[in-house]
Each structure stands twice: as C-alpha cells, then as structure tokens.
Specification:
about 750 residues, mainly beta, five-stranded antiparallel sheet, 48 strands
Length: about 750
C-alpha cells in the first residue's frame, strides 16, 4: 500500500530526496512531482505514465512524502484528507507523445541526481471499480532520461562565519584582501624606559562568534628577512590577553574585543641601530572567522644620522692678494642617531682654498647640544687668479648621503688698482697679530711678510706702532729679501722692491707686568698709496673663563627632578682661570613658551676675581599639576678679545616613581693626609644606580671652592668615577659630585659635596 501525504517532517527510516529548484516556486524532487501528480489524477495517472517515461506537469503541488511498505506489498496511493490538492484537467497521452510541460514551469536540474532504484514486479493493484489497473512496470527510466538532463548544479551552501574588524590606536584599520595589515610605529627617542607602542583591537562585525586562537611575533618575516628582535607583544602596563579567546558579535556585546598591544622598546639609540631589521610580523590565528589569520607588518622607527651642510655653495668676492676672505660652513645632524664625520677634502685640490677649525668626530642626534659644528674655508688669490673653483667634500656615515659637497668659487679680478703687495703673517685667519700667550718677561717673535706678487713696483714708505712709539712692548725690525738671498736690514724709506722680492717685518713683544695691545701700521704704495692696519694683542695678565659641569662650549644640562609641590635647586661653577678678573652677567633665563615661570636664578656678581670661582644656583619650582618643562640659562662674559656667552640647558622632569641614582663622593676622612703639590684621587665608586643603570662614564666632579690664590680648576667634564687631582696650595677644597644614568635622556643624581683638607 502506498501512503501519499503532505508532511512537515519525515518519519523515521525515510530518506529525504533533495529538491530541485523551480523558478519562482518551492523545490521538489522529480519523484515527488510524479507522485503528487498521480495522487491528483488517481487511477488515470497510471495510464498516463508512458513507456517512454513521460509525466504530466503539475502546478501548485504540495510537498509529499512517499512511504513504501517494508514487505514491498501492493502500493495504493491515498490522498490525505486534510490537504487540498487541485486536480489538473485530465490529459490523455499516446504511448509516444511527449509530455506537455506547462510553459511557466522552469526546471533547474541538480549537478548530481541519484537514479531511483529500478522497480521490478510490482504486485497487482486490488480490483476496484474506481481505480484503473496499471500495467506491470518492469523498468522505471532514470530521471535524467525522463527530463533529458546532462549537467546538474549543486545548490549553493551558505556557511555563516564571524567577520573580523580591526581598530588601530582607536581608529578603524583597513585589512587587505589577503588578511594583511601594516602598522607604522611612531618615531621616538629611545632610552629611559621609552617605547614606541601601537594597540590592535579585534572586534566581531558578524552575526556569529569567532575565536582568536593565538598571536605571536614571527622569527622570520614573510619576505624571508629576520624580524626586528625588539618588537614584542604586550607592553608595560598592557599585558597580552589569555588566548585563545572568543569574540562575540558586536551587535550582541558591543564591548566584546581582543586587545593586542605591540611595542618596540630599545634602551638606547645604539641598541635600536644594532638590532637591525626595519620591521617584524605579528601573526594572529583565527577560527570561525572570515579569514584564517590576520598578518600584521610592524614597521619600526629607523634610527639613522642625517647630514645637512649649509650653505651648499660658497662664493668668495672680497679676497685680495694681501688678505684672504674667510667664510663659515655649518654641519648639522638632523637625524635621530649620532653622525660620524670622517674627513674633509678639496676635489680637485687647489691651494688657494684652505680649510681650518675642522676636527673629525661625532655629532649628536637632532635636538642635542652637540648636533651642530662649524669650520672655516678661506680663499686667497694669486696675481694670475681670475676665476678659481673647486668642490669641498665632507665624508660621514650618513647612509643616504655618505659624501656631502659644497661648491667653492671666486670672482677675483686683478686690475691696475689691485695691490701687488701680498701681506701675510702667522695666524692670519684670526685677523690679528696674537701675542696673548706670551709669558711675563719672555719675548715672543712674529714675522709679517710683504711680497711683491705683481709685475709693478711695491714701495714701503714706513712701519710704526702708534701706541708704543718707543718700542717698550713692541720692538719692530724691517728687512728686504731677494728670492735667493739673505735678509738685509732696511733703515731708509721709501724703499721699492720688484716682483718676487719681500719685506720681512719682525715684531718682538715683551711684557713685565700688564698686557698691552697695539696696532702695526704699514704705509705702502703699490702703486696707489694705502695703509694696512694690523691689530696686535699682547700677553701677560689677562682674564680667562671656564665653567663646570661641562665646558663653555658644551655645558652639561641642569636637570631638576621632583614632584608637584617641590622646589629643586642645582648649581654651576664659574671660574676665572687667568690672572685677571672676568666680567660676567647679568644672567638671563628663558622658559619654553607656555610653561610659565619655571626656573629662577640666584644672585650673580658682576665679575669673577683673579683665579676665583663662583658657585651659582638655579631653582625649578613644581606647581600643582606640573609637567616636564625646559628652558635655557644664558650668562655673558667678557675677555680681552671680546664678549661671549654660555648657554646651559635647563630641564624640569616629573620624578613620579622613578628612583634617582645616588652620588657618593666619600666623606672627609676618606681623603685624610692629602698634601699640596701631591696628586690624590677623588673616588665615586660607591655611587649607586637608581631605576636605570649608571652611565659608566657619567661621573661629574666639579670644584666649587678653593683657597685664595689657588689656580686649580676641576670643571666637571663627565668621565670615570676616579678623578686625579693635584692641589697647588694648602687649605680647604670643596668638590661636588653628580652622577647620571645610562640612556639618551639620563636621570641625574642630587648634588653631593665633600671637603678635602690639604696640608
């Protein structure tokens, strides 16, 4: 018996036949269509199931299940009484008629259709008056043969997954189609616990949960390069979350997320440079998401020097045969790593151009007080000069510009008015005859040469020193010299010399007390009358300036470490290192814009006495809510050759939980038995580190008080913990010690002093 009914679900043991798709309609299998049609047509159905397998198309047929008795007994269709089935008009088909398929019934065939099993020897249907007896069915043709189907398509299978959404530092990040994301870490200054940090937040923009299964920094990047070893997952204060971790849809739990902090933390610029590798790769494995993994390329800041030379061209326009023209070149490191300067040369070499005051060395990174240096380039033509040019080549370790150049050129044009008398003397670059280093009672000789470099006659009308006409301090002697002969004294003026000849003027300076300055006057005709004035600076007692900690050219910064409500005082020592007073001040403090009045200076005398020392104080206040602040202390001073200034960087730093290093200079008893004129060693080896290790070359000893008449200076240049000192007089000497930590921005200890009594 066959039971044909509409059902919502299948009884146990019945296999469901996957439906095919009818355009615009519900989906049914071919067998279901056949059975449903037979139910509607009752006994007439059997006569219309032709030998060629044709069937009658049906419209709006409810889905039915076909149940076959387990013993294969007679099958009788029975239409369920609770389901209304519209009967189509009866259609009679010949044995060879093609089935009539309604024009609005579109059949989409599956990729694979399993043929129904052949039905053999169906039992006869009981003889009933209202049922036509169907013929014996031996073979049921395959469905594919009935519909003439060759290719079938599988229905689409929709898999529901979580959708990965990523935020980078609080902003939505764009993930590539291949699941990659690039993170560029911000530039910063390494050291003192500083780090460059980025935060990835993974959220779920889908409708079902997914899992962040794990996250790690790969040893090798995807391009095969080694990953930067200083890139890590998890930062100070932001540890990596426990993984695996499920991420619920944001629509269900808006706060659901997995946070992956990433950091790059070298303890110094050198450590960052030595680490190598410009990036690392973070691999985040996922499960149940729309991607198997998120691959994050972490580009770390690059620490490289960057040389800038200015100007890029030098044009000399005022040089004469007698006097050179000197111009200044500035080299600046604008990079974030130290710059090493190797050499300077001229290409091609040209002796009329000379370089002075250049020393190979290292420039600090941008922003440091050692990031800039200068040197001088001079040009002095010869009589045949018209247009001279060459190139200055500066060699450094800048990776992008290992050789920087400056174009040098001149516009010298000799004429009848151009002096053929070329005047030269030792130290001409300074513009003076310098006797300042002469000792009291010890004569010092400097020789001025006047050479006829032209084709006319050079005439010397006389030589004089107006400020010292009797030659008490400056004794002048004049000689003439042929190219191959010996010097001959000159006593009668005017005296002319031809091309290639010279006048030699010997100036001997002698002093027994105070220094004396004067002017050497040269009266020439060559061919036009002219007077050349050469300033002369005499030696003897004179002022000299020094300072500590640091040097006048590179003072150590004064650092004030404290917390809101504190007031911290630091000192610098100002010295007169000569045997004459040094005029100083007034001191001026400039705070950074917006910081308010942070730093105040103590009182400063108008001068430092002969061989004297001034212990000068500066105080930083920490108002409520104070933050880090910077400023500058400027102190002018005057020397015999003019005025100059020192500029001391000031830095207020919030101490917080940081522990400062501790300076330990020892007590007075440690230095018992010290004798004048005998060296002894200041010992700071008992100093201790704070939150950061001590700088092994970061010990600054400064002399802050000494006996009257002592010429000793200890200027506090950073060095090792042991400082050898030789006191020159008996009495009491006070030394200050400051130590600093390692790192680009070190922490400085509180000043600590020790008194050494010298016998």
């Amino acid at each position: 018996m066959v039971d044909v009914r509409t059902r919502d679900r299948e009884p146990a043991g019945v296999k469901h036949i996957s439906p095919v798709s009818f355009a615009g309609r519900s989906s049914y299998s071919i067998a279901q269509v056949v059975v449903a049609t037979c139910v509607a047509l009752t006994a007439a159905c059997a006569s219309r199931s032709q030998r060629d397998g044709s069937v009658v198309g049906a419209t709006d047929v409810a889905q039915v299940d076909v149940t076959t008795e387990e013993d294969g007994s007679d099958i009788t269709p029975d239409v369920a009484t609770d389901t209304a089935v519209a009967e189509p008009d009866a259609v009679v088909l010949d044995a060879f008629d093609e089935p009539d398929v309604p024009p609005d019934l579109e059949v989409v065939t599956p990729d694979e259709v399993t043929d129904p099993p052949d039905i053999e020897d169906l039992p006869d249907t009981p003889d009933e008056s209202d049922v036509h007896e169907p013929p014996d069915v031996v073979d049921v043709p395959d469905v594919a043969e009935v519909l003439d189907v060759t290719d079938t398509a599988e229905p689409d299978v929709v898999t529901t997954t979580g959708i990965v959404s990523v935020e980078l530092d609080g902003k939505a990040a764009s993930i590539g189609a291949d699941g990659t994301l690039t993170v560029v870490l911000p530039t910063f200054t390494p050291g003192d616990g500083a780090a460059s940090v980025a935060t990835l937040v993974i959220r779920n923009a889908g409708a079902v949960p997914f899992t962040v299964a794990g996250a790690s920094v790969l040893a090798l990047n995807l391009d095969g390069t080694e990953a930067n070893p200083l890139v890590t997952l998890g930062t100070v204060g932001k540890p990596l979350p426990a993984l695996p971790a499920d991420v619920l849809p944001a629509a269900q739990v808006p706060t659901a997320k997995v946070t992956l902090p990433i950091e790059f933390r070298p303890d110094s610029i050198q450590a960052a440079v030595d680490a190598g590798g410009n990036h690392a790769t973070v691999y985040v494995s996922l499960a149940g998401a729309d991607m198997e993994a998120l691959v994050v390329r972490i580009e770390v800041p690059q620490f490289e020097p960057d040389i800038v030379v200015s100007p890029s061209t030098l044009e000399f326009t005022t040089a004469t045969l007698s006097l050179a023209e000197t111009l200044t070149v500035t080299i600046e490191n604008v990079g974030n790593a130290p710059l090493s300067l190797s050499s300077i040369s001229l290409s091609p070499p040209l002796e009329r151009f000379t370089v002075s005051e250049f020393t190979p060395g290292v420039l600090g990174p941008a922003g440091s007080n050692t990031a800039t240096t200068t040197f001088l380039v001079s040009y002095k033509p010869i009589i045949t000069s018209t247009f001279d040019e060459t190139t200055l080549v500066i060699v450094s370790d800048d990776p992008d510009e290992p050789t920087a150049t400056v174009a040098l050129s001149s516009t010298f044009e000799p004429s009848s008015s151009q002096s053929p008398c070329v005047v030269t003397w030792p130290g001409q670059e300074s513009g003076v005859l310098d006797f300042s280093d002469a000792k009291i009672g010890v004569p010092k000789l400097l020789t001025v040469e006047i050479e006829n470099a032209g084709i006319g006659i050079c005439t010397l009308n006389g030589v004089s020193v107006p400020e010292d006409p009797d030659g008490v301090a400056y004794n002048v002697s004049v000689y003439s010299k042929s190219p191959a002969g010996d010097p001959s004294p000159v006593s009668v003026y005017p005296l002319g010399i031809g091309m290639g000849y010279k006048f030699l003027i010997d100036v001997v300076y002698t002093t027994t007390s105070a220094a004396k300055s004067a002017t050497l006057m040269l009266d020439l005709d060559d061919p036009l009358p002219k007077v050349i004035e050469l300033p002369m600076i005499g030696g003897g007692p004179k002022p000299c300036f020094d300072m500590g900690p640091g040097t006048p050219a590179a003072p150590e910064p004064l650092q004030f470490a404290g917390n809101p409500g504190d007031a911290v005082t630091r000192h610098i020592a100002l010295y007169s290192c000569g045997d004459a007073p040094v005029a100083i001040g007034p001191a001026m403090i400039v705070d950074a814009p917006g910081d308010g009045e942070v730093f105040t200076a103590g009182s400063l005398p108008s001068e430092i006495g002969k061989n004297g020392v001034v212990w000068f104080s500066v105080t930083a206040t920490f108002e409520p809510g104070a933050t880090d602040a910077v400023g500058e202390l400027t102190i002018p001073y005057s020397l015999e050759k003019g005025s100059a200034t020192i500029t001391v960087p000031l830095r207020r730093r919030i101490l917080g939980a940081t522990k400062l290093p501790t300076a330990e200079p020892g007590d007075t008893s440690k230095y018992a038995g010290v004798v004048a004129s005998q060296p002894f060693t200041l010992d700071a080896t008992a100093s201790t580190a704070g939150s950061l290790p001590l700088n092994s070359s970061g010990y600054l000893w400064t002399l802050v008080s000494k006996p009257a008449g002592s010429t000793l200076i200890v200027a506090g240049v950073a060095g090792s913990p042991l400082q050898v000192v030789t006191p020159d007089l008996p009495g009491s000497y006070v030394f200050s010690l400051v130590v600093k930590s390692a790192g680009t921005l070190p922490w400085f200890s509180i000043e600590k002093t020790v008194t050494v009594n010298v016998n």
